[in-house]
Automatic annotation (TrEMBL):
PANTHER family, A to Z: ENVELOPE BIOGENESIS FACTOR ELYC, INNER MEMBRANE PROTEIN, PROBABLE PERMEASE
Domain DUF218, chain residue ranges per copy: 76-242
Transmembrane segments: 7-30, 36-60
Origin organism lineage: Bacteria, Bacillati, Bacillota, Bacilli, Bacillales
UniProt xrefs under InterPro entries: Cell_Envelope_Assoc, DUF218, Rossmann-like_a/b/a_fold
The keyword NAD appears for this protein: no
Keywords assigned: Membrane, Transmembrane, Transmembrane helix
Coiled-coil ranges (or none): none
Pfam families from the UniProt entry: DUF218
Protein name per its UniProtKB record: YdcF family protein
């Protein structure tokens, strides 16, 4: 019963609701204007496909598998890339929180620090006027986790991945750090690795924050539309477009 309810909900809430409405318009147009109906049908099918977990997982999974997580790492610093933050929201020891991806990256870095004793360099600034400064928030949270201040470096100016790479590379040179372990979301790692390469910094990739399971199964929920699946598809397409743009430069 639970799965039936979930299935029905997927077509009552957006984007499923919009797909149902568009499909109805296709039926209504079919005998009145065949060409517009065909165009609308194609758009509807593309919208439906892009909003299913099956397509989202396949697209994001193809990015996440490009860099396997190493079993052991050797380096002299852990570099963490930000992924969004809120400003003014309550936290245990202050205000402002990292968003899901950034928080997962920070947690991985903290665990790597515990295992290796390496310092952490967090990179990320305040991207929008109403978003938090990612590196400043990360610094406070790392201190709250018991990581010594001497083991925390921050780069709090960057607004995108390109600036992450450039500004972080400058700090690494200042501190004579030459073997960074790069921590970012697995789907983001291919583009981030290219940006660091262009900035002249050789990194050891340590992907985390996986969105797709290792083995993709097929069941009804994989074929129902959802906003989350559409977000995953959009994230994957954004990364592929970013990679293409880098390779064409």
């Amino acid at each position: 019963m639970i799965y039936i309810i979930k299935f029905l909900y997927s077509f009552v809430l957006p984007p499923g609701l919009f797909i149902v409405v568009m499909a109805g318009l296709v039926v209504w147009l079919w005998k009145r204007a065949r060409k517009p109906a065909v165009v609308l049908l194609v758009v509807t099918l593309l919208l439906y496909a892009s909003s299913t977990n099956l397509i989202g997982d396949l697209l994001i999974g193809s990015l996440e598998k490009q860099y396997p997580q190493p079993r052991s790492v050797q380096g002299d610093v852990i570099v963490v890339l930000g992924g969004g933050a809120t400003e003014g929201t309550p936290d245990i020891n202050g205000q402002g929180n990292l968003l899901g991806s950034a928080a997962n990256r920070l947690l991985t870095a903290a665990r790597l620090h515990e295992a290796t004793g390496l310092p952490i360099l967090f990179s990320g600034g305040q991207v929008f006027g109403d978003s938090g400064n990612e590196a400043n928030i990360a610094q406070r949270q790392l201190l709250g986790l018991g990581i010594p201040a001497k083991d925390i470096l921050i780069e709090n100016r960057s607004l995108n991945t390109q600036q992450n790479a450039v500004f972080t590379s400058q700090i690494l040179k200042q501190h004579q750090l030459t073997k960074p372990i790069l921590v970012t979301s697995a789907f983001h790692m291919p583009r981030a690795a290219l940006e660091f390469q262009r900035a002249g910094t050789q990194i050891t990739p340590y992907p985390t924050d996986y969105l797709a399971s290792e083995n993709v199964s097929l069941y009804a929920a994989k074929l129902t539309p959802s906003a989350g699946a559409m977000s995953t598809t959009g994230t994957a397409l954004k990364e592929y477009l970013g990679i293409l743009a880098l390779k064409l430069k």
